[in-house]
Write the structure tokens for this entry.
Amino acid sequence: MLPAAAIAANSEFGSVQMIAVVQDERLVSKTIVFQIVDTPTGGDEYRTYGSIMVSGTGEQSTTVTHIPEGNYTYTVVDTGPNAKASPNTGAFVITAEQTTEVRFKFFIPVNSYTVKFVDDDESHTVLQSGDVEEGKSPVYTESAPIKPADAQYTYAFAGWTDGTNTYGKDETFPAVTGTVTYTAVYTATKNKYTITWVQDDGSVIDTTTVEYGDTPTHADPEKGADAEFTYTFSGWSPGIVSVTGDKTYTATYANSKNEYSVTFKNEDGTVLEIVTAAYGETPEYTGETPAKAEDADNTYEFAGWDREIAAVAGDAEYTATFTAVQKIPSPATGSDSFETWAVLMLTSLACLGAVLLYGRKRAKAK
């Protein structure tokens, strides 16, 4: 590996680094200064350049090696006019008693680290995995992860977390310095559900939208009375609970049977009695027998009501009816008609007396 002085800046492309060289009395410069180049050519992973100044001795056979041992290779790229490079080595030969420059090329091995992108499910499904060179930022290239909605939430992909820091889905990741795992991060939006409120006949009263976990409410509905019943709201079926999905609630009602007034009137419209009866019951007249005053020709007997009394289905009226009974006229005294009438009356009385006497005799004989 590079000496400590070089390692720290090795990942900062474009920075100048210093590295100590082997001491040699012929080296004017005691260090090599080299520049890291971000875009290598020729397939090099990293490329750096360095140079030293040396003084020539004229000893052409003299070879000076000056690069410390480490986990990298290098070669002399170029020399000044008074030095000669030794091909494919880090050595050079001074050819003149003159200070000259020698330039070097370094090949520094690249460390790579595994970078994983995983989902946040229980098994941490691997979405993408690969090695990334140290100093470079990883890039996620697969399709954006999707987390299925559940009853409570709908999820939207928002970015990644390494357990310490969170990065937006379009944010650049930091340069790699070691193995790292990024886990998908999602925003959760609470689901809303439709609550349907219906009458007991199935007709829809209303629909409302309520978030998961909240308890729905609704104003008490009303149900119009019919001929038989009046209705009072008593609750919802099933009982209302916190929302976990779409749901329908049906109104329920208590009922009370309606009561109606039944009026009994005389023929002349006079009210004889008013009774109260529940729907479906048959009313009963409990007052005195209706009567109608006689006139010159007739007396009147109560004959019933103007229609048959029926089970109650609403307020009702019944009117008394009468049968006329013709009177028998009494003839004037002294007239032939009077005499005839008197004979008939006496005869009738005699017959009646005979019948009564016969009846008594029969009773004694027994």
